[in-house]
User: Fold this.
Amino acid sequence: MSLDSSLPEAGAAGNRSEQLSPREREILLLAAHGMSDSEISASLSISPRTVGAHLSSIRDKLSAKNRTHLVVRALRAGVLAIRTEWSSARPSGGDPEETFRLTCPTKVRGEGPGR
Assistant:
């Protein structure tokens, strides 16, 4: 039995991931980069409690059990992607803080069309 076969399919999460708000997408990206709720809060000038509420909503929409599972589900649903062009473009493998990107336009960390 493989590990993947014990996990629910990402198809249902993929459909609900389209319902993520722009703010939820911002928070998801920052969480994927390893930021804590308080770091996200300071970065976006919102309360840590609001960050927690957004993360809870995102977890519900992507059917994720925890923060790590949330990133995995977002990758499988196509909401997040891993930057692969940096591994060959830069000798150091690129900036680890910019490893993930959203698959749709956003204003977070210089992301958007043409990036």
Notes: The longest helix spans residues 48-62.
